[in-house]
Design goal:
This protein has about 350 residues and is α/β, with parallel strands linked by helices. It has a domain of about 60 residues: Ubiquitin-like (UB roll) (Roll), CATH 3.10.20.30. It is built from 16 helices and twelve strands. The protein has a six-stranded mixed sheet with strand order 2-4-1-5-6-7, with helices on both faces. Strands 3-9-8 form a three-stranded mixed sheet, sandwiched between helices. Strand 8 and strand 9 form a beta hairpin. The radius of gyration is 23 Å and the shape is flat. The structure holds guanosine-5'-diphosphate (GDP). It comes from Streptomyces fradiae (Streptomyces roseoflavus). This is GTP-binding protein.
């Protein structure tokens, strides 16, 4: 499955956040016999639709989609030079599908800042500089080979040209993601073989003081700093306390801080979206469940997420949109009102589709 690597300078609250994420582990709750890697936190994507479906179908349990967060050892200035931890750090990021930067915005004289002062902007630059330098090295290393190969292979000339264009962007101090080059873009596809870091989607967690949680001007400023990436604002220390509380107590604490949901929930939702994923829903007396597919997946691909045989033997999918189903109150009623559609193998799944697959075995 796809993973989000958590990176950040030392002392910004990464471990605090990651511990909260792992305690929130839905895998442990729902799959008691699953082996869980110590540096992976599997977090449920909050989905209130499952509660409603479970009521309609009388489902015994609810299984949300999940996102995997990986704790990546602290970045240090000079990581791109491949010193000690640096190599391992870059290798770990290379394996992640998205990069989540934790940025310190909280003030606390008892917690030392590696650069002596709290400055989100310069911290972001420090991390991005290491990633950019690593990408520049990869390109510089690959270019002579690409130029040579392009004499015989026309498509390598395209790759070489894309690499040179990427080099220009990086030399200006910009990440490829910020420049609009994503892995599914044409440029991104050409660059695939170079395994660059900054084409991965980014998201930013600002670890803020309580007053900043409700400071819209501050938040808008930070969001502008990291666009087109998404910014999430939370207080890691409070998040670690929230998960220890009963639901109603947690809600009370959140409301007292002017928040609607825990920061971890927001992080899971935004992270899931940043990975380019979406869900479809199934429901029955056993379980109401959200299944993970990439955006744009077809009905047979969606069936394959449940079981490869479902994809191979796919005949059709009976699809009811979540809203229609809730309005009708039952599958029978939705069918009677013509709200249940039979979709074939070319159907592109939509968010909130409630599905039953028909297949040959
Ligand atoms: P890491 O080095 O990035 O993993 O940072 P840690 O999670 O170990 O946190 C470093 C220190 O900052 C610890 O003493 C934490 O208790 C503290 N800390 C983490 N988050 C917050 C926060 O939101 N507010 C304050 N005041 N302290 C925090």
């Amino acid at each position: 499955s796809l993973t989000i690597g958590i990176v950040g300078l030392p002392n910004v609250g990464k471990s605090t956040l990651f511990n909260a994420l792992t305690k929130n582990d839905v895998l442990a709750a729902n799959y008691p016999f699953a082996t869980i890697e110590p540096n992976v936190g599997v977090v449920g994507v909050p989905d209130p639709r499952l509660d409603t479906l479970a009521e309609i179908f009388g489902s015994q349990r609810k299984l949300p989609a999940t996102v995997d967060f990986v704790d990546i050892a602290g970045i240090v200035r000079g990581a791109s030079e491949g010193e000690g931890l640096g190599n391992k750090f870059l290798a770990n990021i290379r394996e992640s599908d998205a990069i989540c930067q934790v940025i310190r915005a909280f003030e606390d004289e008892n917690v030392v800042h590696v650069d002596g002062k709290v400055s989100p902007k310069s911290d972001i630059e420090t991390i991005n500089t290491e990633l950019i330098l690593a990408d520049l090295q990869s390109i510089e290393k690959a270019l002579p080979r690409l130029v040579k190969e392009s004499r015989l292979q026309k498509e390598k000339a395209q790759v070489a040209a894309a690499a040179e264009a990427a080099q220009k962007i990086l030399e200006e101090g910009r990440t490829l993601f910020a420049a609009g080059i994503t892995k599914d873009s044409e440029q991104g596809r050409l660059l695939h073989e170079l395994h660059l870091l900054t084409v991965k989607p980014f998201l930013y967690v600002f670890n803020v003081d309580e007053d900043e949680l409700v400071d819209d001007a501050f938040k808008a400023e930070q969001q502008a700093l990291v666009a087109p990436a998404e910014a999430i604002f939370l207080n890691a220390k409070i998040e670690s306390e929230l998960i220890e509380l009963e639901d109603d107590e947690a809600l009370e604490l959140l409301q007292s801080m002017g928040q609607e949901e825990p920061g971890l929930a927001t992080l899971a939702r935004v992270g899931f979206d940043t990975l380019g994923l979406q869900t479809y829903l199934t429901a029955g007396p056993k379980e109401a469940r959200a299944w993970t597919i990439r955006k744009g997946a077809t009905a047979p691909e969606a069936a394959g997420v449940i079981h490869t045989d479902f994809q191979k033997g796919f005949i059709k999918a009976e699809v009811i949109s979540y809203d229609d189903l809730v309005e009708c109150g039952s599958v029978q009623e939705a069918r009677a009102k013509g709200k249940a559609r039979m979709e074939g193998k070319d159907y592109v799944m939509q968010d909130g589709d409630v599905v039953e697959f028909r297949f040959n075995v």
